[in-house]
Design a protein that fits this description.
- The complex is a heterodimer of chains A (198) and B (177).
- Chain A starts with 13 loop residues before the first helix and ends in an 11-residue tail after the last helix.
- In chain A, helix 2 crosses helix 5 and helix 6 runs antiparallel to helix 7.
- Helix content of chain A is 72%, strand content 0%.
- Chain A is mainly α and 198 residues long.
- In chain B, helix 1 packs antiparallel against helix 2, helix 1 crosses helix 4 and helix 3 crosses helix 4.
- The longest helix of chain B has 39 residues.
- Classes of the chains: A mainly alpha (198), B mainly alpha (177).
Chain lengths: 198, 177
């Protein structure tokens, strides 16, 4: 894992972007976030952990599938809108063909206990993959301008509101996000003679 | 599958365009409304087909949003899949691209930095929530050790993720969970 943005690598072409996102999507069962974090940050070194969290934050706040928004933003950053399209197409094209084939096959095997058991097992693991990715990304909060206890509190409250209380995501993001951003804004107050920013 | 009128497809496409802009947190958050339209209102899908769409997409590689294409496909074949998938993707994709550019061009602004810093812990909290909710979907507790083991292995080791998913599939197929 690389923490210094200056040491990062870059995709050499839109084709590489397409292929990378296709390979990544094909490894993602029950969600692509876990494999995206591992491939983009730890294997290809295109992003730092902090950058990944930043992009994920924008992707979460906007409507649309999070991983697709992530692919778009990363593609756009390297090669403009064509890159965005290449990354998104890579994420979706081959998996779309596979899922439609599976749909056609599904009717025949849906009642098979081994098949439904395997699906349950894969579901249990994919839940674990997401939690493990979250644990890994906690390290990215170290460079956050908000102090660790404050970060921890926002994290726990967001979890409690969505997972335990099942409050609607929109309101949690709006209310908690506004509070967190306002606090971060205060913590980022320019000190000494640093130039004022809008 | 053949009895779907072009006008129905256009209506479906239009409705998914609208849902796209409401799908904060992913397309799955607007699934209840998809159910209302496709199952209750238009009668294009049965309840079982609706639930199977989500299950198939989760078991298949790739982003979960593909469940939307599965619904369209079950309702009206490839044309249906195109209507629902393009409908759900077009608006959010355009918006995400515009917003990302706006933010990246202003990344030195204090407001943009405050947004990134403030949202970071919340985003991570939401990841834990997703894992929790996925895990709670399955009744019983037999799957929990598997989930916890997968979480620890992802966090602490570099074991290949496909290996973990495969192990989960084997455990499930053997009837251990």
């Amino acid at each position: 894992m690389i923490d210094d943005p200056h040491l990062l690598a870059q995709p050499s072409s839109k084709k590489e972007l397409f292929v990378a996102f296709t390979l990544l999507a094909l490894q993602g069962f029950g969600g692509v976030i876990a494999i995206a974090q591992r491939v983009l940050c730890e294997q290809r070194h295109w992003l730092t952990r902090e950058q990944f969290v930043e992009i994920l934050a924008v992707a979460q706040v906007l409507p649309g599938p999070n991983v697709c928004n992530v692919a778009l933003m990363i593609g756009d950053r390297f090669f403009g809108w064509r890159g965005a399209f290449a990354a998104l197409a890579g994420m979706m094209a081959v998996p779309l063909v596979i899922v439609l084939i599976l749909t056609a096959l599904y009717a025949q095997y849906a009642m098979n206990p081994a098949v439904s058991g395997a699906l349950r097992g894969m579901g249990a693991v994919s839940a674990g993959l997401i939690v493990g990715t979250g644990l890994k990304l906690v390290g990215a909060l170290r460079s956050n301008p908000m102090q660790a206890p404050v970060c921890g509190a926002f994290l726990v409250v967001a979890f409690a509101a969505v997972a335990l209380l099942r409050w609607p995501l929109v309101w949690v993001i709006l209310a908690l996000g506004l509070a967190a951003c306002a606090y971060a804004w205060m913590r980022l107050r320019p000190r000494f003679a640093s130039p004022e920013q809008p | 599958m053949s009895g779907v009128l072009p006008a129905d497809l256009v209506a479906l496409f239009g409705h998914f365009l609208l849902l796209s802009l409401l799908s904060i947190g992913g397309a799955i958050t607007v699934a209840p409304d998809m159910h209302r339209v496709m199952v209750s209102q238009m009668g294009l899908l049965s309840d079982a087909q609706f639930n199977a769409s989500i299950a198939i997409a989760q078991a298949s590689p790739g982003p979960n949003v593909l469940f939307v294409a599965v619904m369209g496909y079950q309702a009206a074949g490839l044309a249906g899949a195109a209507a629902t998938l393009f409908g759900i993707m077009l608006p959010s994709t355009t918006l995400a691209l515009a917003a990302a550019r706006w933010g990246h061009a202003r990344r030195e602004w204090r407001a943009v930095q405050a947004f990134k810093a403030g949202m970071a812990p919340i985003v991570i909290g939401l990841l834990f929530s997703t894992g929790w909710i996925l895990s709670a979907q399955t009744p019983g507790w037999h799957q929990i050790p598997l989930t916890v083991a997968a979480a620890i292995l992802v966090w602490r080791t570099r074991v290949h993720l496909l290996l973990l998913v495969g192990a989960g599939a084997v455990c499930g197929a053997m009837g251990w969970i």
